Amino acid sequence: MTFYSSVIIMTELMMIAMSLHVLHYSGFKKVQKGWYLATFISIMLCAAAEFAVHCGYYSPKYKIPLTVITVLQFSISPLLGVLFTGALGLTKQAKFAIFFVSASAVAEIISAPFGFIFYFDQSGYQRGKYFFIYGIFYFVSLLYLIVCMVVVGKKFRHRDAITIIMILVILVAGILPMTVYKLNITYIAVALSASLCYIYYNDLVQQDIQAELVLNQKKLTSMQGHIISSLASLIESRDTETGDHVSRTGAFVEALARDAIKDGVYTDTLNERFVAMLRTLAPMHDIGKIVVSDRILRKPSRLTEEEFEQMKKHASAGGTVIRDVLSGVADEEYLSLAADIATFHHEKWNGMGYPAGLSGENIPLSARIMAIADVFDALISERCYKKPIPIDEAMKIIEEDSGKHFDPKLVAVFLRHRDDFYKLGTAEIKSLHNF
Prior knowledge:
Layout: H1 2-24, H2 30-54, H3 63-76, H4 79-87, H5 91-111, E1 118-121, E2 124-127, H6 132-153, H7 161-181, H8 186-238, H9 240-262, H10 272-281, H11 294-297, H12 305-326, H13 332-344, H14 365-380, H15 391-400, H16 408-416, H17 418-433
Antiparallel strand pairs: 1-2
Helix pairs in contact: 1-2, 1-8, 2-3, 2-4, 2-8, 3-5, 4-5, 4-6, 5-6, 6-7, 7-8, 8-9, 9-10, 9-14, 9-17, 12-13, 13-14, 14-15
């Protein structure tokens, strides 16, 4: 009896803990909390009734109250599976199944005076000739719970068949000793199963929330890409040369960044995420040209000093435009990288660039990479005011400006992988001229 008392105490404490968790858990609505609480409290009532009947202190004078308690217990027991079905979110099925439980309760009440299902004699509780009726209702209820768990699983993207199997194993492990050895540990098994069901459902919900977050992130990334593409197209519509240019430079910045990683250069900053963002955001480096007049953008000859000063405004304007457009649809890292590229890609290593006159590593790495790609593409491309120069000559110009215009470490990477850039540059030019 000490063992049995310990089992009941553990069952009660477990259900109290689960009830408190439900009350303080913010992830469920009030209706669902109500189903969970009804389940856990019903298990507590059944376990307490079981203990009262089998505590070993039976006396004939307690026959009537114990009979009432047992009828209540046998009526509630089949309800457990139904209640938890409601807790799992299948409220319509649960409400429908209550008719089944009502039939069980009626059967218990009608048969109680005749001892068909159970009765009490001088030695205490005894099973009646038709005890199997209660067993059928009880087992069907638990089987209904298992089926409903499978049904609930289909509502979610994720599945956890192992948990369902383990719940079934625990229920069988708790019920068999009762039927074969009359060892009453059924309710601790039910309590364990109820707790696992609760964890199972919570886990499905959390996994789906995580999956939804991932999906939303993909949608957001797609939206960002669409915005960037649209902005690049907008620039292209105003300046066809720049439009082709922004499309090509993305390939150059990605190649230079990846080669830098291979050579162990700036690997404290460069990684796959950085490279991917750099590749995506490169087309926006000239977005600030939206504030420059068409007269200057489309001028078929070199700009005057005054016109060039107007053109230089596109750098500082670029960062402002990007923050205005992407704010709210991009995280701060993404936003900062985009703004840095647009604002500082005309800065020079020696501090003679614009708009801020930054020098050395004070210039953001993304802008230093962009600067090489920007100039390299401009050199090998045709402009209305110049012819393209050979790729070898363009590489020589980049080399000569190492430590002056460009980051010397990045130039060294560029030159070490000149064959890659030669092939990439040739391919881009052929594509441009439809060779």
